[in-house]
Write a structure and sequence with these properties.
heterodimer; A: alpha/beta; 12 helices; about 20% helix; globular; B: 6 helices
Chain lengths: ~600, ~130
């Protein structure tokens, strides 16, 4: 039996970065907001204090802060001709669960995606001609420009305490920053982190070879910081337990120490944890949503929470899943190429070389999430001529020290036995004397990479699992070959004792080894209801009182990490909701 | 190698144990207030306001690990160190060295003058 609760102004599905931003902004504007989070409560003092949090087995290997695939997972296949099977343990990507979401266990890397991405189709057609983009590459302009997002990028960077060095201030190129970034109105709120020894070596050689290295912008506070909302950050201690862990020192920009506690002090806000939303409800016309149904996972009780406005703030994959389960918007069909929900699922691609230097000591245990030098010469650098290599998109390169975890970090030269005394000797010898040079590469949308509902497998609530159909295409292989070559050129010039060279990806994507938790697309934004699920304000084209936050609105994936635009788009949507929509509800863009 | 050199410097500074006096009598409280930003993400000055770290209200009148409503590490409780300008000075120079196994995730304040200024500020601010 479902208990129907009293209507509230706003219901947020999920309480991570985007839910936290909306919770704070909308409650401050006087609206009554309920957040439904399927995981539990989390705080630094109770969950992330040392020594509890520095447990590599529990959090690093067994993913204790992530979703449990025994309750809900996806089925996976590489192409529509295959039978999809359930992912029964986490591998390639690690969706978060619990208050703060992935915002508690991310690395902190915060980029500003620019018009190379936001106007991707227009810009490539202008420069390289219409025929340059393959027919099955379903990239599109996002419907929003960098200039529109700039103030919101800044707002998010200030909230999250991003450390970095501007490379372009109001059109003036700045020494030491990324010369290829889009113009910023202001500097980063915090100066860059320290430079690791590995980054120092990389910077020297990369610059000699004509690249332009700079410190990676990242929400690891380089010094103590108070953000504009009054949230206090400690200085990063370079403890080496960042990605997959919560920060013990309140030094990582995270929603549970910034926007969420501010919302929680507001009497207009209510958080219900362990509340798993199963469906968004529509009225009989199908033009409006009326609320959500959810289950208290602690006791199985079912509730209906009516609301004037529903905002999906769950992990990107789960936002798409709930849209498909709720029957809102037309599901995407890759054969007929009709429908939009599930369309343009994208991922990322990587490759790296490991360099071993006899007699050099890198101290990998002194690291943090974004302790990296990067280059953007083959990504945001629009002057880089892609036609020589025949691809769309690009990759950033870099080196640094994210972590030297006792279980997770065991670099050994190629050819070392995988176990036994020889392996033990090699891992002891090289733990402190290895570094890597790696890339993060874009994945362009493809007609056959998408989500739909699985016809066979169901989750703990009896609902169909989401089915992911994904593989790398020729575009990614071409880019991988080019960038792996560049990595190896730099790595060889650094003159290591041994080199495990980078190899370009050639086979199909596999869900088993960890690669990246940058899953994008499925409820994409765009210029009209024919090509997208939401408009430039992240408002559903189908139901005007339904908004969707997060990376599921990205029409393709770049080499940059997604959280910068996730935060900026959420702040922009919050402004639009407060100042326009909630004063006069209706479609914000006419279809 | 900035991270390295900072740690190396600390190694020299921490040579003192609790028996060695390191406190400076004449700290600059205004400068100390600014330095307290390093601590404020975890420590509040209001009575009973425990966060990641315990409230510092009244710290000069108590021993380490004494607040009933804060969950201290066993190491901090065991130390039962009476807090005063001298013990704070030594502790803050390298917290892990002086009370091994305590849970404060902070690598310390290597400069004696910085510690003196911070302690001077805390004397009034924690009352």
């Amino acid at each position: 039996m479902t208990t129907k609760l009293k209507e509230v102004d706003v219901v947020l599905v999920g309480l991570g970065w985007t839910g936290g931003i909306l919770a704070k902004e909308l409650t401050e504007a006087g609206h009554q907001v309920v957040a439904l989070e399927r995981g539990g409560m989390r705080s630094t003092e109770n969950d992330f204090s040392v020594p509890r949090i520095r447990d590599d087995l529990r959090f690093g290997s067994r993913n204790d802060l992530m979703q449990n695939p025994a309750k809900d997972t996806l089925t996976i296949r590489n192409n529509p001709s295959q039978l999809a099977l359930p992912m029964r343990r986490l591998g390639s990507f690690l969706p978060g669960e619990g208050v703060g979401g992935a915002g508690v266990h991310w690395n902190g890397v915060t980029w500003r995606w620019n018009d190379n991405e936001l106007r991707v189709r227009s810009l490539y057609e202008e420069r390289y001609g219409r025929n340059y983009i393959p027919a099955d590459m379903t990239i599109q302009d996002w419907g929003v420009t960098y200039a529109e997002l700039e103030p919101y990028y800044e707002k998010f960077e200030r909230t999250a305490g991003v450390s970095g060095k501007a490379g372009n201030l109001r059109g003036e190129i700045q020494q030491g920053g990324n010369p290829f970034e889009a113009p910023r109105a202001n500097e980063y709120p915090l100066p860059p982190l320290e430079t690791s020894y590995s980054a120092e070596l990389f910077n020297k050689t990369a610059a000699e070879l004509g690249h332009h290295p700079f410190p990676c912008p990242t929400a690891n506070a380089s010094r103590a910081y108070t953000n504009p909302d009054g949230a206090k950050f400690g200085a990063c201690q370079y403890c080496g337990f960042c990605e997959r862990f919560g920060c013990e020192a309140n030094a990582k920009g995270s929603p549970h120490i910034t926007v969420i506690p501010i919302a929680m002090k507001n009497p207009n806000f209510e958080l219900r944890t362990h509340s798993w939303v199963t469906k968004v409800l529509k009225d009989p016309t199908g033009k409006r949503v009326t609320g959500v149904t959810y289950t208290n996972v602690m006791n199985g009780e079912e509730f209906e929470q009516p609301a004037g406005l529903v905002v999906l703030c769950a992990y990107a994959i789960n936002n798409v899943h709930i849209m498909l389960l709720s029957g809102i918007g037309k599901p995407y069909d890759p054969v007929a190429q009709t429908g939009v929900i599930g369309k343009n699922y994208c991922y990322q691609t990587g490759a790296s070389a490991t360099l071993f230097f006899e007699g050099n000591y890198f101290n990998p245990f002194m690291g943090t999430g974004g302790l990296n030098a990067r280059t953007d010469d083959f990504h945001s650098n629009w002057n880089f001529d892609r036609s020589k290599f025949g691809y769309v998109g690009g990759a950033t390169l870099g080196a640094g020290m994210t972590n030297g975890r006792p279980l997770g970090y065991r670099p050994v030269p190629a050819g070392t036995p995988r176990w036994g005394k020889a392996w033990k000797d090699a891992t002891a010898k090289w733990y402190n004397s290895a570094m890597s040079v790696g890339m993060s590469g874009s994945v362009m949308a493809n007609r056959y990479n998408y989500y739909d509902l699985d016809p066979t497998y169901r989750n703990a609530f009896g609902q169909p699992l989401m089915r992911m159909t994904f593989d790398y295409k020729e575009n990614e292989y071409k880019m991988g070959r080019h960038i792996a070559g560049v990595i190896n050129e730099i790595a060889k010039a650094m003159n290591p004792t041994h080199l495990n060279p980078a190899s370009a990806r050639s086979g199909s994507w596999s869900v088993v080894p960890y690669q990246s938790t940058h899953n994008t697309g499925g409820t994409i934004m765009g210029t009209n209801p024919g090509n997208s699920a939401v408009n430039k304000y992240l408002q559903s084209w189908d139901c005007h009182n339904l908004f969707i936050m997060g990376a599921s609105v990205f029409p393709h994936n770049s080499a940059y990490n997604p959280t910068g635009p996730v935060g900026a788009l959420a702040y922009r949507a919050a402004d639009t909701l407060k100042n326009v929509y909630l004063k006069n509800p209706g479609p914000l863009v006419s279809a | 190698m900035n991270v390295m050199s900072k740690h190396a410097l600390r190694f020299i500074v921490l040579s003192g144990s609790l028996a060695v006096t390191g406190a400076h009598a004449d700290g600059d409280a205004a400068r100390g207030k600014k330095l307290f930003e390093e601590c404020a993400a975890c420590h509040a000055l209001e009575r009973g306001a425990n966060g990641v770290g315990p409230s510092l209200n009244g710290v000069f009148e108590r021993k380490a690990g004494e607040l009933a409503d804060f969950r201290y590490s066993p190491a901090m409780k065991r130390s039962a160190l009476p807090w005063n300008a001298r013990t704070l000075d030594i502790f803050l120079a390298d917290p892990q060295q002086e009370i091994k196994g305590n849970r404060m995730p902070f690598s310390g304040i290597p400069e004696a003058r910085d510690r003196a200024d911070l302690i001077e500020y805390l004397k009034a601010a924690t009352k």
